[in-house]
Amino acid sequence: MAFDPASLKFDAAGLIPAIAQDTGGAVLMMAWMNADAVARTLETGRVTYWSRSRQAFWVKGESSGHVQRLIEMRVDCDRDCLLLVVEQEGPACHTNRRSCFYTAIREGEEVEIMAPVAG
Amino acid sequence: MAFDPASLKFDAAGLIPAIAQDTGGAVLMMAWMNADAVARTLETGRVTYWSRSRQAFWVKGESSGHVQRLIEMRVDCDRDCLLLVVEQEGPACHTNRRSCFYTAIREGEEVEIMAPVAG
């Protein structure tokens, strides 16, 4: 069946959550896409989110160089969440860490489990 | 720093997206939690979501037996998304597949990449 981005279930703001996972299995980040961002990501192979704060397309890495090349897009059973398997150039997080999920909860305490990439 | 679920950033409905990943690295599903579900999950070690359709706590696997044991909860840099590292009993998806993300988009077509678990 041909994939149509309009067939996804978007929220009231027209957005769907997209989880980026690198080819090694690490979950890097979660951000949002609208139907056009989904289509652009598939067309260009460059992961393109919708920035809710800027209300604009956000081509990941466009300014930082930390691009995400799409290896595969997957849709969940409810069609209301996307999984993006990506090749991540450099850190995915704006804090310069590989992943945005660098804070673990251990025995009730917040513990930093990942340091920023040097340089 | 002690972790307080109330310190997370919830959406207008009081919810935060939570991604479940098994210890082998597979992303299993994405669902939602409110502050109480976060606290219950940490207290019990049994992943507990908030069902938006039923407007009730959803102890994953309570009826199916396909429970998720929490290994570690992680918070992202913006504190508006959770990553749950879990031990998944059986399939995570209600379609009896290991993961909800069993549909890939390949060359514009939807392709099923994962079969339901037998039995």
Structure write-up:
- Two copies of one chain form a homodimer.
- By secondary structure, chain A is mainly beta.
- Chain A has one helix spanning 35-44; strands at 16-22, 27-33, 48-51, 56-59, 68-75, 82-88, 103-106, 109-112.
- In chain A, the strands form three sheets. The first copy, chain A, has a four-stranded mixed β-sheet. Chain A has a two-stranded antiparallel ribbon with strand order 3-4. The first copy, chain A, has a two-stranded antiparallel sheet with strand order 7-8.
- In chain A, strand 5 and strand 6 form a beta hairpin.
- The longest helix of chain A has 10 residues, at 35-44.
- The radius of gyration of chain A is 15 Å and the shape is globular.
- The model of chain A has no long low-confidence stretch (mean pLDDT 97).
- Chains A and B meet through strand 1, strand 2, strand 5 and strand 7 of A and strand 1, strand 2, strand 5 and strand 7 of B.
Largest interface: A-B, 37 and 37 residues
Radius of gyration of chain A: 15 Å
| Assembly state | homodimer
First CA to last CA of chain A: what distance?
46 Å
Query: Using DSSP, what is the number of strands of chain A?
Result: 8
SSE pattern of chain A: EEHEEEEEE
Percentage beta strand of chain A: 35-45%
Q: Which structural class do you get from the secondary structure elements of chain A?
A: mainly beta
Range of helix content of chain A: under 10%
What form of chain A results from the Cα inertia axes? globular
| Uncertain spans of chain A | none
* Average residue pLDDT of chain A: 97
Number of helices of chain A: 1
Strand order of the largest sheet of chain A: 2-1-6-5
Q: Tell me the major beta sheet of chain A.
A: 4 strands, mixed
